[in-house]
Every structure is written in C-alpha cells, then in structure tokens.
Amino acid sequence: MKEKGELVPYWVIAEKPGLEYSLWHGFARIWQGDGDLGERFARVYEELKRRHDFVIFIGADSPLLMPRHLWESYSLLAAPSALIDNLFVLGRARDGGFYLFGGGSEISKDVWTSVEYSSADTAKQLKELLRLLGTTRELEELPDVDTLGDLMSLPDDPGAQAKLLEPQKDLLRWIRQIEK
User: Fold this and answer.
1) Closest listed residue to residue 115, CA positions, set 134, 101, 135, 94
2) What phi and psi values does residue 58 have, to the nearest 5 degrees?
3) Distance between CA 166 and CA 106 in Å, rounded?
4) I need a labelling partner for 62 at 20 to 30 A (CA). Which of 114, 144, 146, 171 fits?
5) Between β-strands 55-58 and 98-103, what pairing exists: parallel, antiparallel or unpaired?
6) What is the C-alpha separation between 171 and 179, in angstroms, rounded?
C-alpha cells in the first residue's frame, strides 16, 4: 500500500466484469477472484504484495474506523523492523472478526483458508496462525455492522458516542423514524 510515502487505496471488486464499470474508472482496483473468503483474501494479499511493501485490508462495515487506525497500522508496517519481525497488524471487531488486517510478510494460502470466517473467534484463529509466522500487534477493538441491530446499537455504545459523525447520526435517526 505504500507508494512515495502515501497510502494507495485499492477497491477490491467482487465480479470480474465490474472492473470495467464506469464507477471504478480512475480508481486503483483489482478483482478478488473466485472461491471462498479465505481463497479471496489469499489472492488479493498476494497480488498486492507483488506491487507494494505491505498491505492493509479494511472492512467496509466498520463505521468507527478512523484515519488514526490506518496511520497507526502504516507506521508499524513501514518501520524498518517490521519485515525483520514479520510484523502483522490486526484490528479485532467486537463480534470476533476483524475490521483491519495488515502485513508485509508472505502468508500461505493455507493460513487464509484455515480460518473459519464469520465466527465468534475468527480474529483469534487468524492471530494463532500468524503467530507461527511472526508477531501480531493489535489495534483497539471496534464494533462492526453486520445486521440492522448492530447499526442501531451504535448510539448506545459508549465508545461510539463521540466518534460517530453527524451524517452517521442523521442516518441512524432516519432509520429509527422509518422503523416506526
């Protein structure tokens, strides 16, 4: 993800024909490939590692993900010791998954496909497998939004109160109104 000292965002597209969709023109994009989630993670990670020193994946369902989480990950992975230590970065989601993953070392497809995704211990499983490859630094745990209930509980989350942006609060107010 590092190019001339900047983060280079890629859009990972699910359907191969979607790569040519006009919405994505002007954006760096790659196709995630076929297969289950582990196979797709492996393919995208390997492809981006060919292009960059390290990779940071973020979840699209993490409304409390802040720029500081990206910069903390970037700082850890860009440090000279990161490659020597085979450093990985993991941001756990409260439901057991992860909202961020970063790494600069090789990860075999077997590691990615050995994890049971969408389970209460997905992040724990991944961290255990990564332990055999290097060191994992963890970011703060954050909620993610997989269901309407997850979304509606955000305002009640003490950690979310100060972090939600006004447009996010507006969206939640609007959803509450249409639920009535």
Assistant:
1) 101
2) -130, 150
3) 40
4) 114
5) antiparallel
6) 12
**Contact 59/53 with Cβ under 8 angstroms?**
no
Residue pLDDT, tens place only, 108-147: 999 999 999 999 999 999 999 999 999 999 999 999 888 8
Closest CA to 1 of 104, 124, 72, 113: 104
State the Cα–Cα distance between residues 131 and 115, nearest whole angstrom.
14
Q: Is the dihedral of CA 89, 110, 99, 153 positive or negative?
A: negative
* Residue 125: φ, ψ to 5°: -60, -45
76-103, pLDDT tens digit by residue? 999 988 878 899 999 999 999 999 999 9
Burial 4-38 (b: 16+ CB within 10 A, else e): eeeeeebebbeeeeeeeeeeeeeeebebbbeeeeb
When comparing pLDDT for 64 and 157, which is higher? Answer: 64
Cα–Cα distance, 16 to 65 (Å, whole number): 28
Q: Which of 90, 100, 126, 107 is nearest to 46 (CA)?
A: 107
Q: Give the Cα separation of 65 and 169 in Å (integer).
A: 15
From CA 87, how far away is CA 93, in angstroms rounded? 20
